[in-house]
Amino acid sequence: MYSNDGFRELDRQECLGLPATAPVGRIVYTRQALPAVAPVNFALDSDGVVLLRASAASGLARAVDGAVVAFEADAVDAVACSGWSVVVTGRAVVVTDAAEQERLDRIGPDSWVPSPQEVFVRIEPELVTGRELVRGRTMYGLHLSV
After folding, report:
1. How far is CA 18 from CA 38, 84, 104, 127, in A?
2. Of 22, 19, 144, whose CA–CA distance to 86 is shortest?
3. Neighbours of 39 (CB within 10 A)
């Protein structure tokens, strides 16, 4: 990023905290050798681990288990032309340990579409990046129309 492009690069701690304020995120993964994006509700565990809950029979759960994925969350104020975006990239793993599943059942996200058999997916934050739009519509003191 250029130092005067209106964006501020977020540090890792900011990036790991901001997604907790977003109601929805997106997971980016590979489906049939092509990029796929799905909106998901989520929760954050310790150290910025992203938690998803999915049907055990879902194509998403099968596609991401053991794969490197990206997770993105953001907030945008269209009127003020401000906001932030965070991307967490890391390996996704379907949780199989019974004790861990019980723990996550207490803290993890609730499923929007409950199914008889659900699994938790953990995304370990290996690469974490983010940026915030800091100048918005009045960048350089000029009013920029949309």
Report:
1. 20, 8, 21, 15
2. 19
3. 9
pLDDT (0 to 100) of residue 122? 97
Contact (Cβ atoms closer than 8 angstroms) between residue 128 and residue 19? no
Asked if residue 43 has pLDDT above 80, the reply is yes
Amino acid at 32: Q
For the stretch 8-17, pLDDT in tens is: 999 999 999 9
Token pair of 62, please? 């099968």
The residue length of the chain stands at 146
Least confidently predicted of 27-31, 91-95, 108-112, 134-138: 134-138
In our burial notation (b when 16+ CB lie closer than 10 A, e otherwise), range 49-63 reads: ebbbbbbeebebbeb
* Domains in the chain: ranges and CATH: 7-135 (2.30.110.10)
